[in-house]
Amino acid sequence: MPGKHSDASPLHCTLSVMPATHSNAASGNSSSTSSVYSTRLTARLAATAQQNAADTSHGSEPLPANAKQTMCSKIHRHIRSRIGTLCLLLATVVVGLTTAHSYFHGQSDTPNCGMSYSRPRYIEQTEFGRSWTRYSAKYKLYLYREGGFDVHDQPFRIPVLFVPGNAGSHKQVRSIAAASSSAFVKMVGESPHLVDEGCVGYDFFTVGLNEELTALHGYSILEQADFVNDAIRYILSLYPKTRAKHQLSQTKMALPTSVVVVGHSMGGVVARTAFTLPNHIVGSIHAIFTLSTPHNNPTASLERHVEDVYNTINQFWRRGFRNGTLDDVSLVSIAGGNLDSMINSDYAFVGDLAPSRNALSVLSSGINDVWLSLDHQSILWCAQMAHKFSAMMVRIMDARQPTQLVPLDERMAVMRELLYPSIDGEVSEGVMDKPMGSESYRYVRLADNDEVKLHPVDVRALADNSQTRSRKARALHLLPLHKEGGYNGQVVQVLYDPQLFADQPFDASQTNVQLALLSCNRNSTHNIADADVNVLCTTLSIPKVTKLPLKRDGDDPNLPVHSLHYIEYPLSLDQYEYVGIEVPAKPGIQGFLQASLTDQPQATEKTIGNTQLLVQPLTIVPDQKLGVRSRIKLNVPEDPFIVYRTKLVLRRNPATALSQEAKFGPVVRQSDGRRFESKFWYDQRTLDLAIHGRGAYLPTDSEPSNKTVS
Known about the structure:
single chain; 11 helices; 27 strands; 710 residues; 6-stranded mixed β-sheet; 8-stranded mixed β-sheet
């Protein structure tokens, strides 16, 4: 058929030429021309057919072997590349989903902040204009006034300047300013004489920095720091007139020469940058408090100039403490911990920037009466944090000094007392070494309704005032210091419920209740079992009490957290027979006390590698007999990307399990070697130990550390 051909045979075309008629010359010419064209066309078609036949026969021949191998290898490479891309994509999705699940559902801490309240007024300082600063059109300065407390629009107390962080607002000062005002009113109401000692309250100033993205722009840090120096100069210029107008006390108050600076997030970096600029007045800042501030590294290194600013200010601060120019400056850094997703809390550690005499770093989870991890914003408004911060502020004020603060060593001692748990190896320095016949000795004559209980060292003293007795009744619990051939122990550990010593049923405001710890010798003319016995005792100086919170996740943040008190006291074993614990008994007051004698507490130490933990779990049994407090030290890699899941297994003595009802669940505390991170768990069997303060790319701090988790 025309237009079709077989692959086996070439295409043949035949052109038939009709015989020509010679009717005339023209027709003869035409026939001759057609014959020529027909001949040429037949030749061309024949040549085309032969070429097609040749192509067909060539295509039917098999490909060479090397050509087939090349084609197969190309196909294999293509498949492998597709599989590799698919596996990489799958791994990315798995890691992303795991990270998202860990971020949203795997946090070991839960937010539990109480809400803080304020009645703010912000008074713009309109006189702080172009004659004072070149940034007057860009930034603003405000004076905060708390409704119901501040009735004057002029500052006359102790100046404080608040610096907000990245995209922050000047209004973020309201919670800590309101809490400080409330704490001052309460303190003066209880002790009016403190006003004559320089406790006059605070004036909180705050800067509006146009909500600039300071974390992303180095020049913004420098401009804001320049403005802060100008603002401090203006603030100090106000007080010669206002202090003379508002007489605070009969005691003469000094004119302020410095301002307390509080910085949130990048505001803390701005405050430290102010020291490095030419317009800084030397001595105009003696105390800096920072909240969630990345001191060591920028959170986002998206611009080279941010890195340059960080390097410059950190080098300046290190040199400043070495050459003495910053000797009187205190730097306190408080970070939020696990819940702060904006900055890495490792960056808040300032041990590399300043010596321990001038600086401290702490996570909010270890602060007494806070005991919470805080996110980046709630560290400003969380009621628990605001109350603790204000309590610290009112205890360091002294308007009689030009700096408006107590001396450096005193204020650092106050801040360590309020921010650090005393359980971090700080047992009392005092021992029972007073000679017999000292005026501090007294006879303890036990009335008929009192009790003396003598306990072997291996039985913990347990007191429970569940029964109503007379108000004058008390119990004296004696633990013998000596045994045949040696001593029963060198340290007394006491754990008690503060309700047992309160004048009224438990109130969260009663934080100073303490037990009476005595060193005693019995009267040689009486037997210790006699009902009317004289015991010669002296009262020991009580060391700082450690508070152990009985707080679970999800507890009502508006209710006070019940805590137990713990004391650890070293003993002198030469002159005394007993250590005594005097417990009063009051109607309606219930509680318990538990004490034991032990040798100097030694930690059970284990060195653990991550590869070892991946193979199998590790079981740790304390080396010493369990006392009131036992310690386990883990030498583990301190990496913020690693969480150590720990399970607590308790085995009670069957003999005491039936006779003694458990008064509370176990309290576990995690801490590191530098007192930066401290965290409590109550009555939990599974603990997730996360470690902060030693993040990647951070310099090594100058303070010695044992790199352990306890």
